[in-house]
Design a protein that fits this description.
The longest helix has 34 residues. By secondary structure, this protein is mainly alpha-helical. The chain contains 13 helices and 2 strands; from the N terminus they run ααααααααααααββα. The chain is elongated. Helix 8 packs antiparallel against helix 11 and helix 11 packs antiparallel against helix 12. The model has no long low-confidence stretch (mean pLDDT 86).
């Protein structure tokens, strides 16, 4: 067990000591923030302006600002849950490229301990990074106005960050095992970074895509986690807006917001509940851990 813990610490230090890796793992989130400042904020307002017709005097601008800023924070966290785990796992590829894996395989550590150590280190590193983003984001939202988020939902947000980091790490680890040099993994990361914002609905709400595209996006566990983050983060302000309208529209505006910004994940012809999304993420973790253990035994030969 001591060897497992030591190797896990080593893998975490490999990520945090590489400031370039830390920066690039956050690059997509930085881009989301920049695009929000340039034009996404207006786009999101336009997405809900039609549903506001006749309700302009009942919906406070401060509440809309809180809603849109919450959508931004959700996009930043969702994209980080894709790019951070992938970058953390790049240690596997570096060890292969520099033949460090030969030395690792010669240690007393069992193969399942080695692969589980990579997985644990990446999960913990991702949890730390995304939790920091969430903390900064919540503080920023609070300084801008009332967020209507209860202590229960704050706790749920941190809990879902843990689930998201673990599930995304498991998902990408199966892919990373096949990469043999950093040039290939870097090329793949470039594609992933470009797609991440669309996959979790940071640029365009996923509800605007066809059902087939929505299903493809929701194959990524980070998309399900982003949906849950969006619910826990925005439900309070949506309910407050609905209360302010006073039932004049029969809750149509609040329902429109939930549909527009995808408060539930669509997968294979059906809409999943919160429990359904958690079951999907949990099942994926189990399947991927089993797959990565088998693949490790086949790709790493003890010297």
């Amino acid at each position: 067990m001591r060897g497992f813990i030591g190797f896990t610490k080593r893998n975490m230090m490999m990520y945090f000591k590489d400031l370039g890796a830390v920066f690039f793992s956050m690059l997509t989130s930085i881009i989301v923030f920049a695009l929000y400042q340039l034009f996404l904020k207006g786009t999101f307002y336009d997405s809900i302006s039609g549903a506001m017709e006749g309700l302009d005097n009942l919906v406070l601008k401060a509440d809309l600002d809180t809603l849109i800023n919450g959508v931004l924070l959700t996009g930043i966290m969702g994209s980080a849950l894709i790019t951070v785990p992938f970058n953390c796992l790049n240690t596997i590829v570096k060890d292969k490229e520099h033949r460090v894996d030969y030395d690792i395989s010669a240690t007393p550590l069992k193969r399942w301990q080695i692969i589980l150590s990579y997985f644990t280190a990446s999960s913990l590193s991702s949890i730390i990074m995304v939790a920091v983003i969430l903390t900064i984001g919540l503080i920023a939202l609070t300084t801008m106005g009332d967020t209507y988020i209860t202590a229960k939902y704050v706790a749920l947000l941190y809990g879902i960050v843990v689930v998201g980091a673990i599930s995304s790490t498991a998902f990408f680890m199966v892919i990373m095992i096949f990469f043999k040099d950093t040039s290939v993994s870097s090329a793949f990361f470039g594609i992933l970074s470009a797609a991440a914002g669309f996959v979790i609905g940071a640029y365009i709400p996923i509800s605007q895509f066809s059902t087939t595209v929505q299903t493809v996006c929701n194959l990524f566990p980070a998309s399900h986690i982003t949906v849950l983050i969006r619910q826990f983060l925005l439900s309070g302000v949506v309910e407050h807006i609905d209360e302010g309208i006073g039932g004049i529209d029969g809750g149509a505006f609040a329902e429109s917001i939930k549909n527009t910004f995808s408060f539930n994940a669509y997968l294979f012809g059906g809409t999943l509940s919160n429990v359904g999304s958690l079951i999907y993420a949990g099942a994926l973790v189990i399947v991927c851990i089993g797959a990565m253990t088998v693949l490790y035994n086949k790709t790493y030969k003890r010297k």
